[in-house]
Amino acid sequence: MQAFEATNFYFDRAASLMDLTDNMRTLMITPDRELRVEVTIEMDSGQIGNFIGYRVQHDNARGPFKGGLRYHPHVDQDEARSLASLMTWKTAVVDLPFGGGKGGMNCDPSKLSRGELERLTRKFVLQIHDFIGPDKDIPAPDVGTDAQVMAWIMNEYSKFHGFHPACVTGKPVEFHGSAGREAATGYGIFIVTREILNRLKQEIAGSTFAIQGYGNVGSFTARFLHNAGGKVVAVSDAYGAVTNPEGIDIPELDKHVSTDRKVIGFKGGDASTNEQLLTMPVDVLIPAALGGVFDATMAKAVQAKIIVEAANGPTWPEADEIFHSRGIPVVPDILANAGGVIVSYFEWVQNLQHFRWSLEQVQREQETKLVESFNKVYDLSQRKSTSMRTAAFMLAISRVGRARVLGGI
Ligand code: NAD
To answer: Which residues line ligand 1 (CB under 6 A)?
Structure first.
């Protein structure tokens, strides 16, 4: 099964519990537009580098397309399509005035120099600038991209369209970004983790956590959980895992990662593997790396009590069924990791108004929105005796469908 099929499986499962016509289903799952561009740059060696860039604009019934840009060797059309449609449902679940889009570049940013990365990004914008913009489609960071890449995008876009900081979010704070954006997805994971634990009569303090992925999302999640008294007993990245049953000292780990660029080799824990991390007996397992982590075999081996999906698309449908039948609650990606796009929305609003919010205001508004959305999804899942994923899709489908009907075809 491909990633886009998996997303549509979840869509169909929720739609089957609603009165959705076949026409409406087709309208809602088919992407509006798919761009595929060849991005050619001069490499530092003097050779020509050829890369393929994608931007999929899935649905804009509720507002401009919105979603990240991923730079990774696995990026392809199907992945971009799946992630773009997830963005449609995500922005609807948390009730933002956006649709869904996603894109990226098939490349390995770790093998590119800073100059190559900049040229690649600027050339990509050159190819797609007429299709993006503050009221059309607003990119943001994802795997392999960061605030610097967003700054280049804004600068390149402005050469064609003038000063429009709202054309991209996730920019550096000192370059029209928002306070709290960098930490936003991790902060959001922290909030929904606290909420699900509370519903199950547990607290962050004293609970145990395993986090796969120690990039932007995984590392901020670990910091917030650690600061609230949670025991982060395992973390990993692409190179391996580190475990400590007493809880990893996250500030010390951060010092190690800032010099070594990977978690393995950290003296405050034992070396381990990603597979071991995923099957550890913890209260909460948080996948925060790439998609497709849980297949049927892995789902049977998981020993965590709760799963909070920080990554996009970590669970294949057969694994989802197994988690459901085993009574393991899964807070789905379209709700759990929506903190990033919520604060992207705040950044967009601030840019349009040329006004700045304080970090306190950003985090307060983010928390209000996430808790409200969490409660709606959780309560719906209880009322319908279904999973939180199905409930989240039902909520999203009803909102996107309503906008389609009101706006007209
Ligand atoms: P990142 O590039 O900052 O970090 C990714 C991390 O995953 C790195 O530590 C990397 O080493 C690790 N990793 C890669 N391959 C791995 C593997 N095979 N096994 C274990 N670890 C591996 O990316 P990010 O921005 O933190 O995004 C992580 C996930 O969160 C992605 O699925 C992304 O789509 C999702 N997400 C990110 C945001 C955001 O605001 N950045 C928002 C919503 C969702």
So the answer is: 141-144, 185, 212-218, 236-238, 274, 288-290, 310-312, 337, 340
CATH of the domain at 301: 3.40.50.720
What's the pLDDT score for residue 83?
95
SS3 137: strand
Q: How many CB atoms lie within 10 A of CB 260?
A: 12
Known catalytic membership, residue 262: no
Q: Which atom of ligand 1 is nearest to the CA of 291?
A: 32
Which has the closest alpha carbon to 222: 250, 259, 193?
250
Domain around 280:
201-328
Number of domains composing the chain: 2
Q: Classify residue 394: in a domain, yes or no.
A: no
Q: pLDDT digit string (tens) for 128-145?
A: 999 999 999 999 999 999
**Cα(377) to centroid of ligand 1, in Å?**
25
Q: What is the mean pLDDT of residues 211-221?
A: 97
Helix axes 3-15, 317-325, angle to 10 degrees: 50
Per-residue confidence (pLDDT) for residue 1, from 0 to 100: 76
Whether 158 maps to a domain, the answer reads yes
Q: How far does CA 107 lie from the centroid of its chain? A: 19
- Looking at residue 19, its pLDDT comes to 84
Judge whether 244 lies within some domain.
Answer: yes
Of the three residues 328, 360, 381, the one that is the final residue of a domain is 328
Q: What is this structure's pTM?
A: 0.96
